[in-house]
Amino acid sequence: MPTTKQQKILVLFYSLSGHTADMAREVAAGALSVANTEVVIKRIPEILPDSFFGDNPNLARTRDSLHAEFAEATRDDFVEADGILLGTPTHFGSFASQVKHFIDGLTPVWLKGKLVNKPIALFCSAGSMHGGEEVTLVSLMIPLLNLGMIPVGIPYPIQSEGPDFDAGSPYGAIFVSGHGKKPNEADKKIARILGVRLASLASVLSCGCEHCGSCRIFAENLGNL
Ligand SMILES: Cc1cc2nc3c(=O)[nH]c(=O)nc-3n(C[C@H](O)[C@H](O)[C@H](O)COP(=O)(O)O)c2cc1C
User: Fold this and answer.
1) Which atom of ligand 1 has the smallest separation from the CA of 13?
2) Architecture label for domain 7-223
3) 207: burial class by Cβ within 10 Å (0-12, 13-18, 19+)?
4) Which atom of ligand 1 has the smallest separation from the CA of 131?
């Protein structure tokens, strides 16, 4: 019997006040539930100066605890992963500049086509229900499509009815944190489903064996283009 490859999923996030980090733990749990999947959670480097945190002791405490819990991601982490779950807070109706800075740093590998056909799924946290979270996710897809990556969302039939329906979006998992909320069961469930979807697709795209029809079709059609 052929041995099944162990795939690597990277959960990569930026979080200023901790909410996107909460979502990162959930999408990671979903990805980890997929067979033959290794998951690592890493954070996007901070670019705000220390003086910013000097004026915001609560944010400084959150930064320090996130830095203690999660290693900083590098470009190599991004290149080597078979699939990526990428999270950001909504900042002024879009994704955080720290995330854009990290993506701009991928330019050398973009130019070599190293990210082409890598699957990616997005999650975000915003303060308000109408604060731009969907725009955040869709605008984040634009550079990722430029890199040749394959975005994975959460179609409505999968979100189903009831509170789950309000938790996600077709564009990715969303948690609205206003009024001191923490992710509820529906938020967590949708985030975990996103992790499962991303890791499941990544396992097909990265399989690379010579035995299963699916990955051979992929290699022959997409992989060689
Ligand atoms: C600079 C800045 C800009 C923000 N802009 C928005 C916004 O446009 N819409 C919104 O709903 N929330 C906005 N927020 C609130 C955050 O999106 C929200 O608190 C989110 O849960 C933070 O995630 P984090 O804890 O991972 O940093 C903003 C927060 C900051 C610090």
Assistant:
1) 26
2) 3-Layer(aba) Sandwich (3.40)
3) buried
4) 11
Q: Is the CB of 18 under 6 A from ligand 1?
A: yes
Segment 182-194 shows an average pLDDT of 93
Ligand 1 centroid to Cα of residue 145, in Å, is 24
33 within ligand 1 shell (Cβ under 6 A): no
What are the tens digits of pLDDT across the range 95-132? 999 999 999 999 999 999 999 999 999 999 999 999 99
Neighbours of 8 (CB within 10 A): 17
202-223: average pLDDT: 73
**Per-residue pLDDT at 19 exceeds 60:** yes
**How far apart are the C-alpha atoms of 43 and 30, rounded to whole Å?**
18
- Tell me, using a 6 A CB cutoff, whether residue 128 lines ligand 1: yes
Compute, in angstroms, the gap from residue 15 CA to the centroid of ligand 1.
9
Distance 134 CA to ligand 1 centre (A): 13
For the chain, domain boundaries: 7-223
Residues 6+ apart with CB under 8 A from 95: 88, 124, 136, 139, 140
User: Which residue carries 């079709």 as its tokens?
Assistant: 217
